Amino acid sequence: MYDASNIIKIAKITEPTIFSDEQLEQINNLIKYQDYYDNNVFKYIEETNPEYKQTIRSKKSYTPTQVPLNYARFIINKLASWQFEEGIDFNCISESNQNRADEIEKDLYEIHKQNKMDEKLLQSAIECNVSGAVVFKLKYDEDKKYPRILPRNRIECFPVYEFDDYENIYRIHFIAFQDENTIWKQTYDFVNGRCYIFEALYDVNNIANPKQVIIDYQPIGTGGKYLNYLPVYIVPNTPQLGQVF
Fold it and tell me: What's the domain count of the chain?
């Protein structure tokens, strides 16, 4: 069983100033929501109803069976299916150069197909309905020569904003478990018009220092051309409430 608190510990060491009590409470709620979706709910039931713990002795001659009915997963999956019941359609129009617009439309359909976006949009809708947001990463596949679109869970993403401008994100950390003893962290950093990347692995028993650096801190690019934006897009599920993330 992974201890999600280790993810928060690494995030706090990396960015000690971005966590308020409200944000930490929100992260803990996200962990709880994911547990409900994954049907790992009895620990919450036992917190409020200790008598349901199977370790507690009772007068019964047997241990009652726990059979959870995962209504949360059923409802969320049904909602996601309804949200993306129909596939995405593209329609590019240009008054000056329709041939070019047709080429762009063809490219968009090809990127959509290569990325299996119909499946990924369902996955993203599920994540949005569980946690209230989803994150997309853009990565260029050097071997197959096409841009990849990768959805990531909200709980793994830690954006850093300008102090007085919550719309200006200048750094984003992705933190997740690789296995029970190893945590993976990838950071995108936007500095002086360039996007830098750093990626490393951490031991859960020594999260202050990386045990293995996968990508040392460096700008993203090649041939003297560098990425001039953060290749990450955060989609909140409740934008009408003014929620950024």
Answer: 1
